[in-house]
Amino acid sequence: MTEKFTFTLHATDGMARRGTVSMPRGDIRTPAFMPVGTAGTVKAMYPGQVRELGSDIILGNTYHLMLRPGAERVAKLGGLHVFANWPHPILTDSGGFQVMSLAQLRKLDENGVTFQSHIDGRRYELTPERSIEIQGLLDSDIQMQLDECVALPSSEAEIERAMRLSLRWAERSKAAFGEQPGKAVFGIVQGGDVPRLRIASAEALRDMDFKGYSIGGLAVGEPQHVMLEILSITTPVLPAEKPRYLMGVGTPDDILESVARGVDMFDCVMPTRAGRHGLAFTRFGKVNLKNARHAEDHRPLDEASDCPASRDYSRAYLHHLFKANETLAAMLLTWNNLAYYQQLMAGIRGAIDERRFEDFRLATKAGWARGDIAPL
């Protein structure tokens, strides 16, 4: 541990990077996957379970927490780490993405965005300064600038307008954050699917000298190959000595391919959301436990796994739990999925350390393609 926020690069293999983000509340081994704890909890999981699976950091959502229970209340109760019983690093997003996607009757201008809560209709204003203030009240370790994320496809003019606004908000967010030893605010690269805008955004943010850089506005409707093309031109522009965080991504395949393009940190609701809907991620690929073919399959999801949810319960039992709408179904599948994601990240880190990432990438994809389907 350290009293400062630092990033140390230990190894590279092609564009893939192995490093450590260090801060007072702990170290983050990169490449890292951050489970999403939207409202101060990783759904269907105990905090201790999340930690035991290998998670060094979780994500909290500014929009949801500002609406309920309120940032001032969380601060009064000791901050999000105390409130959620998670004494390790926490990253918070700015709230901007949820405002754009969830809020009602929103109005955006140069100052920020005003909106009505999707919960009770109350009116709020979110500016770059207020977003940083809320994240400070939550006491998160890594905070995000407020930005505007446009859905794809959009016109190039609209993408550029939002990117330029996000750059102005980046300056204001950084100024509002000030100097906070041991913590960091990240700038967010925007620019949609337009290469010149992505490069311009990355260059401008680099000149602002953030402690870390996020890549936003991807996995918002574009095909995977477009996302990967944008990553390939964006990451080389960002400082090699700073961490790079791809926001809201993604599938195991997205993660593998993004690591190959120089990304260090990821978050996504996919493993938890999929778990609540009967979909398991495994080294054999995806398994839909709602499918009738599993009704008499005595095999576990993965008998070689260290995770009890993956190893100790039959597919037939998991299928039954979902058919019976039992809460345990979501708990076990979420446990399995987060275990697999963290096992994948550990495998990636080890492969980069040993300069065999490309072999690992190909072998992992081959395992997914081969599958593990029992005969009918």
Written overview of the protein:
- There is one protein chain.
- The chain has 376 residues and is of the alpha/beta class.
- The protein has two domains: 6-268, Alpha-Beta Barrel (TIM Barrel); 282-370.
- Helices cover 41% and strands 20% of the residues.
- The protein is built from 15 helices and 16 strands.
- The longest helix is centred in the last third of the chain and has 27 residues, at 327-353.
- The model has no long low-confidence stretch (mean pLDDT 96).
Helix content: 40-55%
Shape: globular
Poorly predicted regions:
none
Q: How would you describe the oligomerization state of the chains in this entry?
A: single chain
Number of helices: 15
- What is Rg? 20 Å
Catalytic activity: 7-aminomethyl-7-carbaguanine + guanosine(34) in tRNA = 7-aminomethyl-7-carbaguanosine(34) in tRNA + guanine
Pathway: tRNA modification; tRNA-queuosine biosynthesis
GO molecular function: tRNA-guanosine(34) queuine transglycosylase activity
Organism: Kaistia hirudinis
